[in-house]
Structures are given as C-alpha cells and as structure tokens.
Amino acid sequence: MKRAVKTGLLLAASLLANGLHAAPAKTDPLAPTGHWSVTAKGQAPLPPMGWNSWNAFNSDIDEEKLMAAAKALVDTGLAAKGYRYVDIDDGWWLKRRQTDGRLLIRTAAFPSAQTGDGNTSFRPLTDRLHAMGLKAGIYSDIGRNSCGQAYTADFKGQPEGNVAEREVGLYDHIDQDIGLMMGEWGFDLIKIDGCGIRAMSPENKLVSSGQYRALGPLVDYENLSRTDIPAVRDLYRRVGLALARTRPANDYVLSICLWGAADVRSWAKELGNMSRTSEDISPNWERMLHNLDSASRRELYAHPNSWNDPDMLYVGTGEFDTAHIQEARSHMALWAMLNAPLIIGYDMRKATPELLSILGNSALIALNQDAGGNQAVLAYDGDTAQIFVKTLADGGKAVALLNRTGGPIDVKLTAAHLKLREDSRIDLTDLWTGAQSRFTKETNLHLAGHQTLVFRVSGARVHPGGLYLSEMPGSVNPAVDGIVEPMADPMVYRGLLPWRNTRGDGEHPIYGGWGGARADATPYGMSLRVGGVNFSSGIGALANSRLEVRNAGYRNFAARVGVDDSALSPDARVRFEVFADGRSVARSGWMKRGDQPVALNAPVEGARIIELVARGDRGDLQNVTVTWGSAALDR
Ligand code: GLA
Question: Where does the Glycosyl hydrolase family 98 putative carbohydrate-binding module domain start and stop, copy by copy (predicted)?
C-alpha cells in the first residue's frame, strides 16, 4: 500500500518536472477527491460518554457490578448528562465452543446470560440496559487471544478449556463474532484490542509452553518498522465491513484499542469512531500526562465520528480521588478539552457527591460535547505549563491552563493565545466556580500544583470575518500528511509505568505520528515562519500533503503559503494548490525555502470540500515543512 502511494507520487512529480501538465495519474494521492475521507461508518458525531468496567474492576467484572454502575448512571443524573454507554471490558468470556465456533459467556459472572438451550446470550442484559435508556458495549481482541491472556493471566475471568477453546479473539472469526456480539446480542459499541497480534510470538513462553498458538506478531509495540502496518489495518478494515453488514442502520461505535501502535493515528480516522493514542492510563499524575501528550498534539487527527482516545477516565481513583481534587479536576477538564471520549472507570456504587460534581460538571461536558467537534489546540506548549484553546460551534472559545508541575506557578494568558484583540475587553467565566473576570491584553493567573483553570471566553476576534483553519481542526483532515516513513513522536512525557517501574532501559518514543500536520505549529512543533514572516495562525504540514477542509457555508479561502523556514532541505521545491469540490481555484508557482510567502485567495462559495495540496518536486521529500499561513475561511 505504502509502496503504491510512493510510486504514484514519484510518477506525478516526474510528470510535472517534465513540464507535462497532464491529468494526475489515478494513483496520485495528491489528486483532489472532492470527498471528506473521515469515516462515516458508525455513530459518534460527538465523543462517546459512558462507563467501562476495566479501570474499576480489571477483568473481575460481573452482572451485579455492571448493573450497579448502570443504575448509578441513571440515578445520579449522569446518564441524562450524556454518560450512556455501559461497557463490559475483558473478563466476560468463558470459551469458544469447538463444534461451531460460538463464543460462550461466563455465566457464573453473568447469570442472565444462561439461556437454557446450551447457548449463552447477552441479549437479556443488553435489553435491560436499553430499557434503562442506556447503550451497551463489549470488548474483544483482533488476534486469537485477549490482553488478559497475554498480560494479566493472574486476573479473574480468563477463558477456560483447551488451546482452541481459549482462542476467544476475533481472528478467523470476524464475521461470526461481530454478528453474534453486535447482531444477536445487541451491543452498540465494541472495543477491539490488539494483544493477540502483539504478544503471541513463537518465543513468548506462553506460546512455547503450549498454552497459546503463535500468531505473528504483527505489532511490535516498541518499533514501527517491525510492525506490519498494512496487515494490522486490514484486520480492522475487515471488522469495519462486518459491522456495516451486521448493523446496516449504522448505529454502532467501533473503538480501536491499539495504544498508538501500528501508526494507527494515520489510519484510524478512516475506520474507527475512537482510537487509543497510548498505553493504558494509570491512576497517577505522570501517566495522565503521558496519555494527555499522546493526543494533545494530534488536534488535526480528531473529527466528528472519529476521536482521539487517550484512554478512560481515572477520576475517583489513586491520585485522582477526592483527596486530590486539583488532579481529579485537571484530568476531567483536559479530557473534556481534547474531545476525548468520557468513559468513567470508577465503581459507581461508591461515588460521592464531590466526585459526581466533577464527572457531572455540565459546563465541561458541554465543551466536550460541543457540536463544532474541535479538539483544543495548544496555544502555549511547555513542560511546565500548557495552554489549550478550543473553538466552539457558536464561535466562542474555551481555554484551559495546565500546571504540569507539583508546585505553584504564575502564568500569563494573553489575547494572542485566544486569537482575540488585545485592545478590547476579554471576559472569562471559570467553569469550576462560575466566577467572572475580565482583562485586556494579558492577565496573570495563579495555578496551584497540578491545577488546571478552565474558562469560557468571549472577546473581539482578531479575524472577525470568519475562522482560521487552526480554529476549526475538527473540519481539517490531513488525508495525506506527507510522511514517507512513520516515525515515533518524541514529545510524550514518560512518567514511571507502575507495572514496569525502572526495569529495562527506559521508555522510548513509540507512538507513530511525528511529522503529522499541526494547527499553529510546524509538524515538528516549531512556530510557523515563511521567508522570515511569522504566522501565529496557520496549518503546518509536510510537502506532498493533501488536506481536506469541510466548508460550512464560507465564501472565500485565503492563505499566505510557502516552504517553512524550518524545512531541512534548502532546494526542495513545492507548489501549493487549492481545490474546491475537486476544481483548481488557486495555485502558486514552485517555491523553495526562504521565498517570501505567496497569497492564495479563492472563491469557495457553495463548495463542500476544499483541498489544500502542497506538492513537492520529488515524491520522496522528507522533513520539508510547508506552511498555510493565516489560512482562513471567510463569510
Ligand atoms: C488492554 C487495554 C485496556 C484493557 C485491557 C484488558 O490493556 O488497553 O484498556 O482493555 O487490555 O485486558
């Protein structure tokens, strides 16, 4: 697949270099499609919200605990606020019956699944959840075996029987299992892990001792170049096809759980409704930061119907319990700002009013569920403090200021962070306290250790005629991001993993995505600058990229474009072109580093999809950063 893409690029580039402005070759990935390629399959126009058993109980889940959580969601009013999915994670399965391959449920834990005819069924359980106005989620693995079997075999709820009976994962059974779980049993969400294609190498003791059959591995979690990315992607693609067949009404959620491996960031948006960006979260501050970082610079890779998932909430537990109120609130506020799925992982039977007030903060939920679907963008990025700004559907803004350190700090919030005018009044409403305040130009805010202040903001926009593209990341999709070989993102905080501590030589950059397109930054996190001209707003991408932009009624596109001053190659040449529903509407000449930015203006009235193509003079250009400076859509 990757090779075909590359060949197409080289072909197109050589046609252009030879002066032949022929129609682009069919395989040219930079050719405009007039199409928004984020998946329309499944239903997650807003980030899914609910509860999952794993963080509360690991695999020791049963019907009583699950139904208690469901009842609590309804009784506390959290369900009415949007927390509707009740998801069973690992631990529900007993075995795969060998006569017909049907999965059997552990009825000792889920008595209502006993059907009397020798089968088992979750239908009575999902019926009860549905009758309560809730939705039901279940868990599987894309390989033959589960994560529990691979990594937590001492936890309860492990499959039983012989080797074949214990093969409870989807591998070789995709159609059958999806039909069973999402059809016959009536689940609405399926979370699909990848341990079975990661952990079962022939060398693994679990395999060499005869407990499990070898498979692959297709995923090397630590190493992208030793991962068979197309094979992994194809397995999930087949799940997508089975889901579409099983649920023609399109009323389901596919939750991909590949922990940022297999370069999933680059393809999940075409397949999944939410996709894990990292290792499992742990109930401690440093690992919350790790998970946050795995998603926070991926603002252009989250869109309505396909969200970044930095993992479930740990609000209520460990360093996020009510004795750690700053941390609990920060975790909640940051997940809300990132448009992360809000999936509670707490034993709801024990929830206190204080905890409920955090999880149930309506103002934060409204940010997360805002129809604009824009993940917050980092307006200030640092190891001590970060400032996240999220543009809302009504054009308003929210800002979160995070103190990553344990000690108090002062931070300056400026009008520029908010893209608001510094000569007029800016109003803030604190979303935890409701307190109102105002400032012009900049304000000093005091943050306690680990505190996140979060505000709704209003003021006069710097760009009143429309929106910068970097304010609408949910409508900008790097369909082709120009990355030649996927590389791991080195910007993720690496706090101690509780189960590993300092064993080994440390945690390495592992999540593919370095070099992906960014809002208000280059793909490598620098300020945008072309020919010495700085751009505080814009989209940073790589040469040989194609960005899709959904146009909601805007009439004009404008940007000042060029090869970014941070590009490594001084003589690579790039040509910028804008398409409206597939028609070319503006194009630059060939540009190289140091050239002054060129203005591209184009009427786009009536066009549904605008595409921004930065075509290099060679298909294999690497690290050639390009900037769509001040790119904006105007009314
Ligand atoms: C993996 C997932 C977790 C959880 C466990 C279950 O680790 O990332 O979220 O589902 O498997 O074993």
Answer: 488-628
